[in-house]
Amino acid sequence: MTAGTALHHRIDGPDDAPVLVLGPSLGTDLHLFDAQVAAFADRYRIVRFDLPGHGGTPAADGPYTMAGLAERVVALLDLLDVDRVHYAGVSIGGAIGQQLALDHPDRVLSLTAMASAARFADPDSWPQRAATVREGGTEVMVASRPGTWFVPSFAGTDEAERLLAMLRATAAEGYAGCCEAISTFDVRDRLGSLHVPVLAIAGAEDPATPPEMVRVIADGAPDGRFETVADCAHLLNAERPEQVNALLAAHLASVGADRS
Q1: Regions in the chain scoring below 70 on pLDDT
Q2: How high is the pLDDT of residue 260?
Q3: Which of 84, 97, 141, 192 could form a disulfide with 89 if both were Cys (CB 3.0 to 4.6 A apart)?
Q4: Are 134 and 173 in contact, with CB atoms under 8 Å apart?
Q5: Strand, helix or coil at 11?
Q6: Residue 40 vs residues 5, 43, 61: alpha-carbon distances, Å
């Protein structure tokens, strides 16, 4: 992956506070985390970023890999003169966090992986999805996303429509490249090297990364904890922000001041 320009990002919170990096899901942008910013920006310096081809980050030349995406995050931290961070991410954002913690353990204080996996389901299907999006654009994915992203009671809400608008605005090549990164990602045999506190959170009704898949991350990490949030699917931090924020706050507090 050609690095190109820095990942588009936004910073909120006090300059001297511990840094919390938030990594978004495929087909969304940094505003996926608006509810987390509202809850944590009083005591954390929050750095949100857009994936390549998502939000304000231009699509990069391929091929995309999770290791390459993690290096883009490291480059952003270097640009911001940030040394060590707490990291939380959703789906591919959580996979980037795992890769970051494994490849650069000196940069990560804690990891929270939400609706993520150490190996995503149906790896052979992702290149086909990439080809479909390259041919028809991200609009071809919109009709099928509510059943994966949301529980029925949340689909059709203004917030759900806001999230789907992020998908419509995503560049086809950026989306497709991230699909290809997902298809080759597999760190199951490296989870034992995650030497930071790890929280893995699943949406109880998530068909994309069901609880048993998310739990693999926590079970494989030496200091891992697993939690499930009821009545939500894949974009759990947007569907059930209060519950997710409470779990994240407790996890960050448990890490202790010595790691901040």
Answers
A1: 1-4, 256-260
A2: 47
A3: 97
A4: yes
A5: strand
A6: 28, 6, 34
Burial of 137 (0-12, 13-18, 19+ CB in 10 A): middle
pLDDT at 259: 52
Q: Which CATH superfamily is domain 9-255 in?
A: Alpha/Beta hydrolase fold, catalytic domain (3.40.50.1820)
Three-state helix/strand/coil letters over 71-124: HHHHHHHHHCCCCCEEEEEECHHHHHHHHHHHHCHHHEEEEEEECCCCCCCCCC
Return the residue matching tokens 């079970």: 219
Q: Which two tokens stand for residue 71?
A: 């290096």
How distant, in Å, are the alpha carbons of 28, 112, 200 from that of 31?
A: 8, 18, 21
The single residue listed with the structure tokens 């001297």 is: 16
The per-residue DSSP string of 187-229 comes to: -GGGGGG--S-EEEEEETT-SSS-HHHHHHHHHHSTTEEEEEE
pLDDT for residue 117: 99
pTM: 0.97
The per-residue pLDDT for 4 is 60
Domain assignments of the chain as residue spans, ordered by start: 9-255
What is the Cα Rg of the chain in Å?
A: 17
Question: By the 8 A CB rule, do 229 and 236 touch?
Answer: yes
Checking phi first, is residue 205 left (phi over 0); if not, alpha (psi -120 to 50) or beta?
Answer: alpha
- The pLDDT tens digits of the residues spanning 137-188 come to 999 999 999 999 999 999 999 999 999 999 999 999 999 999 999 999 999 9
**CA-to-CA distance for 142 and 166, rounded, in angstroms?**
10
User: According to the model, what pLDDT value does residue 175 have?
Assistant: 99
- What pLDDT is attached to residue 85? 98
Cα distance between residue 119 and residue 37, in whole Å: 28
